[in-house]
Every structure is written in C-alpha cells, then in structure tokens.
Queue: 2 jobs
Job 1
Amino acid sequence: MTTTNACNTDGNCPAEGLLKQLSGKWKPQIFRLAAEGPVRFNALLRQLEGANKQSIAVALRELESGEILEKVVVREKPLHIEYHLSEKGKSLLPVFKTLETLL
Amino acid sequence: MTTTNACNTDGNCPAEGLLKQLSGKWKPQIFRLAAEGPVRFNALLRQLEGANKQSIAVALRELESGEILEKVVVREKPLHIEYHLSEKGKSLLPVFKTLETLL
DNA sequence: TCAATAAGTCAGAAAAATATGACTACTACA
DNA sequence: TGTAGTAGTCATATTTTTCTGACTTATTGA
C-alpha cells in the first residue's frame, strides 16, 4: 500500500485543515458561543474579555470562509448582522462533545 | 440551568485545551506520524521538510506534557529515544477519523 | 440636523511563534 | 584519540499573530 491513512503525500490531512480553521486566540470561543445561538460583532466584543475589533473581524471572516459560520443580514430595526453556525459547523458539535470526554 | 454546555465561566472548554495542545506548525504532523508508529527526533527533522531542531524539540515537549506522546529511552545500540502515542493520544484517533469525513 | 448604534477598515506597534546557527553531552566504533 | 550518530540547548533573528487607536459608512431616533 502507498499510504495507511487519509493524509496525502504533501503531508496534509483534512483534519489538520479543520484544526487550522478553528485554531487561534478567539475562534474556538466564537465557535462555542455560536453553538448556543447567533452571534454578533459588537456583542462578541463585549462578551470576549480582552478581545479587539480587528481580531474579532478576522476570526469571523475566517470562520465564514471556512464555512463554519454563515453571515446573515437581519432586516429588522436596528438592521444588523448575525453569524449562524452552518450545517458543517453543526456537524462538528458531536465531535467536540466527544473530545470533551477525553480529558 | 446555569450553563448549557461543558464550558466553565472562564470561557474555557476541555475541547479548546485539546485543540491548543495539537495546534501549531508541526504538532499535527508529528501527531499523525506518531499514530503510525514511534517517532524520533532526528528522523522527524528529516521527514518534516522545513522543520528545525528548536521547533521539533518544543513540539515534542508540548505533546509530551499534554500527555499525548510518551518519551521512551530505548536501551539498545545505538541508545536512542522514541516518542510513542499515549493512551490519551490513541483515544484521539477515532475523533480525527470522524473529522476527516466532515470535509 | 445631531448624536448614537452597528459593523466594520486601516496603519503601525507589540507580543508570540518559528527559524538559524553555534554549541553541548553522551555513546560507540576504529 | 578522533570521528560519527543521537538528542538535544541557547541566544538571537525573522515571521506571524494579535492589539491599539483613529477613522469610515450606513441606519436610526430625537
């Protein structure tokens, strides 16, 4: 056999990519909050102690481009933006649940 | 109820800690190689293109302190050191297997 | 029209992660 | 005794990530 696992010859694994999409200072926490309900930019800034605009903006953009969160413009007043957990994001939840049991 | 998930009020999750223990430039790859069999310092240096001593040393130390790898002195000639996947490390494998199916 | 809320961007500074190259310590073999 | 293999450490440099503070744009309510 040429390979014994799901990793390719470049040394990349799907799981590594996913790991990367969720790593960083704020992304895990944003993911966790989004799992409880839609999150918003300014609210995150207040909820996540020590966080700054720039980092939150970058984290949201990356979670969105990784298709873990979805950006939704809510046409109510006040007009605002919500980030929702995508289907892919939801599919990660049981995995994390399992991880939590492994100390 | 006071909380709906396994996270505490400090904003820390067990899963986040685990994520952190496996994140970084080399740790995921070392973990993956260790899943196939014992790994060694100099061998990793050759296997992981672009890696340097320092980073490998740090990564191994952190994986060891996170109890994902175990350091084993092999009293054969030449005397050398092997890093083995621990029980905790092994328990992560099926989780990663699952992650790989989630794109 | 003015002030507030919401969601950002941008340039530059600071902090953290990684990389470089020289050096160490031990074992083994000729 | 000298050279090679194995597994590192250490100080310093470079790169990447994160932070700071000022600024922007659109909507809303008084």
Note: Chain A is about 50% helix and 10% strand.
Job 2
Amino acid sequence: MVNIKDLAKQAGVSVTTVSRVLNNHPYVSDAKRQAVNEAIKATNYRRNINAVHLSTGQTHLIGVVLPFLDHPYFMNVVKGITQAAKAKGKHIVLFETGYQHEKEKSALTMLENKQIDAVIFCSRSHQLKTLEAYASYGPVVLFEDVKTNKCRTTFINHSRVFTEALGYLYDQGHRRIGYSVYRQTGTNSLARKKAYQSFLVSHHLSYNPDYVFTGCLYAEDGNALINQLKCLTAPPTAILVTSDQVAAGMIISARNAGIKIPQDLALIGFNDEPIASLLDLTTIKLPLEQVGQSLLDQALGKQVSHREMASTFIQRKTVEANE
Amino acid sequence: MVNIKDLAKQAGVSVTTVSRVLNNHPYVSDAKRQAVNEAIKATNYRRNINAVHLSTGQTHLIGVVLPFLDHPYFMNVVKGITQAAKAKGKHIVLFETGYQHEKEKSALTMLENKQIDAVIFCSRSHQLKTLEAYASYGPVVLFEDVKTNKCRTTFINHSRVFTEALGYLYDQGHRRIGYSVYRQTGTNSLARKKAYQSFLVSHHLSYNPDYVFTGCLYAEDGNALINQLKCLTAPPTAILVTSDQVAAGMIISARNAGIKIPQDLALIGFNDEPIASLLDLTTIKLPLEQVGQSLLDQALGKQVSHREMASTFIQRKTVEANE
DNA sequence: GGTTGTCATGAAACGCGTTTCATCCGTTAT
DNA sequence: ATAACGGATGAAACGCGTTTCATGACAACC
C-alpha cells in the first residue's frame, strides 16, 4: 500500500503539500498540485481512512437512537438521516432501544468515549437533563419540541397540529372525539394531551378518559382499539390516530365489526404512510425524511439550532364521506 | 486525554503489557494485570478507537447493500444484521441503491479502499462476476442462492418453497395459478420462474403469461394487480404473492372490487409481515432476522460458507375458507 | 528603502494502540 | 546436568494523515 510519504517522494514534494492537495487546500502551486495528482493516479493511491480519523479525532460515525426500526415512522426518519449522511461522508450507527434505558445510555457512553461524533435521538426514555449532560462531549440532536439550549432540535409542533385537527373534526360536527398515542409520557404525547385538554375546555366538551387510547403503534393495536370501542356505550364518533399503521388496523377491523367509516367513525391518521393512500385514509403528513436530513445536518453543525417542520393535511375519505 | 503510555507509566509496566490487559491476552501476571486495571480506573482511561482501527487496519464497518429501506422484507434483514453487528462491536453502513449500478459500485469501491471491512448484498443488480472480483479485497456476502466459491451466501431455497406452495394450491383444486414478483431477472425471481415452469409441465398445465405479474413490491402494486386481474377473461383462481405488502394491497382492493377471497381468488403471501396476521393472510414466513444475523456472521467469518434457511408455511384464511 | 502582507512550502509534532521479536527466568524432560 | 520449552515482559517497529509553525520569496504600500 502506498502512503502519503511515498506519494510525496514520487511527486518530489513534502507530505504537507500532498495533504494539501488531497484536502483541496489553497496555497499549492499548479505545478506541484499536478505532480501530486499524477502520482496519485500512477500509484493508485488510496487514503487510509483510519489514519485520517486518528489524526482528526473524528470517527465520522453518527449515533441514531430510536425505539423501533420496524415502523414506517422511524424508518422514514432513518431514511432521511442515511441519505444526508451519505452525502456528507458520514456513517450511522443504529441503536434500536425499545425504550430501554441502558440501550439509550450505551449511545451516550459511545459519545462520551468519542466512538461516535454525535448522537441523534428520534425518541427517548431518558430525561432531558441526562441528555443535556452529554452535550458537552458532542452534539446531541433531538426530534422533539423541547426547550433546551444544549441540545439541537428539529421538531413538529404537535400541539398546533393536534389543535387544528381537533378543530376540523369539531367543524364536521363531531362532539365525541378521541385520540390514540403510543406512550403516555413522551414529549409528543404530552403536547397532544395538553392540546386535547385545552381543546375540550375551549369547546365546552367534557373529558372522557375512555376516549384516550394508549399503547397504539402497530396495525394490531388498531385492531385492539376497535375491540375496545365495541365495549363503550357512547363511543367516540371520531378519533385522531397518531400512526397510519394503527389507523389501517382500525379500518380493517372496523369493516369486520360492521363499523362504517366515516359514517360511524371518522379517522384521521398521521404520517401519510403508504398504506394510507391505499385505504383512502385522511391523514396528516409529516415530512419525516426531511426531518431526518435536518437532524443529521444539525448533528454536524457547529451551532445549537432549533427547526420547526411543517405538516400537511391530506384529505381523503375517512372523515367526510362525500367523494 | 490519558493514553496507553500514561497508563503504562502509572502502572509501572510497559505499553505492551497494558495492551495485553486491554485485549485480554494471556501471559500477564496477576499482579501487573491488577496494577493496570487500577490505573485504568484511576485515570478514567478510554481507549482511542481510531488508533485501534489504524493499528489493526480494520474499520469495524460492514456495508449493507439493499435496494429499498422502506420495505418490511429488507427492514427485517437489516434488523437482524444490526442486532448481530451490535453484539460483535461492528457498525453498519447502509447503501440504499434502488438497484442503481453506481450506488452498488460505491459499496464495492469502499470495500476496495478498505473503508469497510466487508459488504453484504441483500439484493443486487450487478453481475455475480463483478461481486466475485471484489471478494479478494474482503468478504462479500450474498442473500441469495447462487453457486460461488468466492462469496459467502445465506439463502432460502425459493425454488423448493415455490414448488411446494404451488403443489398445495394444486391440491386445493386450483388449476389457474399465477404468481407475482418484483424484478424479472433477480436470482430469486429466476428460481421462481423455473420452479413455476417445471410445475406447469409436471402437472400438465399450460403456460399463460397473463398469470405472471411483475413489478410488485408495495401494497399499491397489489392494488394495480387486482385491476389487471379484472381485465382477464379467465383470471387465475390463486396467486402466489411474493410479499405480504402486495397481498395486503390485493386483499383491500379485492374487497372494493367485489372479488371474494378465498372463494374467487386464493392468495399466499410471503414473509409473514405484521399486516399478514391482521388480514388473516396465509403466508410463507421467512426467518429474515435470522438471515440478517447469519449474513453478518458470515461477513466476519474467515471461511467462505453457504447456509440455507428454512421457511414456514403459515396457514390462515386466504386459501381455504373453512372455519 | 523599508515595512507589511500574501503565497508557497516543508519539517516536525501530534494522535495512539498493536504486534513482532528478543530476552530472561523457571521448570520439565532426558 | 543440560537441553528444551512455556510463561512473562518490554523495546521498537508499524500503521498514516493533519496541522502548526517557521521560513523564504515576492509584491504592494508608504
């Protein structure tokens, strides 16, 4: 294997000059630059990436922490992150945690040990403070709407999105409106809860705990949700479902249960996953790939920044029946 | 940052001995081993991973090449690979290619440049010969059933699986049997085609090109397939669908089109994706996570090996209607 | 003419763990 | 008693690119 030293000898310059050519630095005369380039070609030189890493102290590895890989929501974020990473010559290290504390911690420890340059939390179970404490070791990026001057964030204003969606359902005549989430305590869920409660108050509706469904993530959970619904004497007439997966499960189960959508039950999903268009599901599209790109961008950035991403309401046929 | 040299001084031993302790090598006396371990604790020493990489010449990075990330099939393989990688202290570099030649090539080039230690092809568009040529630079692992003594393989015998499934449908009385695949030219598709043709011959059935559906990968494609079906005067009474995604799309579209499943159309899916149980889809489960683990294992192994993985027939309600 | 500044260039320091090789010592085998 | 061998240990070589700092040359400015 030829190295930069051989190259220098071959081109009749110093290793510094070679390095400068390699990294496109200024202050190299055209003659020498060309000589180096020729030597590179002649020797089929390959830069030793490990030596670069040792020298620069960077690993070019970005940790990506998420609970589940097998869900379109996270998958799309990862897709965006991966694309952006490739463009920047970075690699990603996946931490599929299932919200286990220790697994999240292992990502933080790797950041502390400089085994990764930065870490992106797509979702977390650790406290914000814990993550902030590690921000001194390297960039910590969050996909959630929290106030912090230590971590970078890209987020969706779930509070506003939820409020708007609830308002839309209200305007369609719905008065018994429910919603589903996965966790009760995540930042997003908390924001939604707050928005929901505020909405009820401002519209003079009473709170019914039976209208709030938790643990909903996959299509099977939508199936279970429909079964729960059947036990209610006054079931909700509309539900905001925080994943199209779940909504899809609901639509399929509802058919079997003889529940007509949207007549008996209106649904609004989230994410605009592929299944949504197939089932004509009205949904709120989130720009997850862009979110991923943004997250990676922030992971590489110098400054702490905060970015809000917009969502899009996609009207199909699970709220209003008319074509 | 303390380094191995400081550590050696602190413990009163040579760097070699420290290295031996760090790597659990034999031939270190208990006394020295303990002294080193104490020094490690006292100084909060962290091994510089980049120095290790430079020294060993390994990157601990494994390339994973696949066409699409957003499909349960590949996602599950990646999941298995990622899990196994974590256990072995390796990291994965994803190459989402969309079957573009150049993108696949970039993975091979990285292998050549020693930027990754090995590369796993979950699916490929390049010729086998091309991949084999790169096997001299590092392990090349394939998820397909091909004869090669240069690349390692983990595979499913799609030919046998297909033959069995076709036989099952035949025994159920079906004589107009079709199948769907994504690509026409992939190893798996070719194996299936062969199995299909052989099956027709041995069962004295005639070949009808209208019964072979290509370009089927996502649920939407299942929707399109049903539309195609409606144009046929003698549509197949049973279809082998090589992804539950597609089968799911078909089931949903079939309902809207008034096609009864399984009475009018029997379906067997593949992969046992989550949606399959929800829709009571009879399917052939592939152990994709285990496949992923095996692939990674082979990527790290010294020897070229070939492993067949078994599939499982999961009977639900899209072939036989009874009970 | 002297000062200041820009461009060009290379020597040397820096980052750090792994592994080979030589050596020394004590023990077992002959 | 002596050769042979295994265990223990450290010096030194190896892997290699980046970056700081010093220096020289030349142009521009006062």
Note: Residues 8, 13-17, 20, 26-29, 32, 51, 54-57 of chain B lie near DNA strand D (CB under 10 Å from a C1').
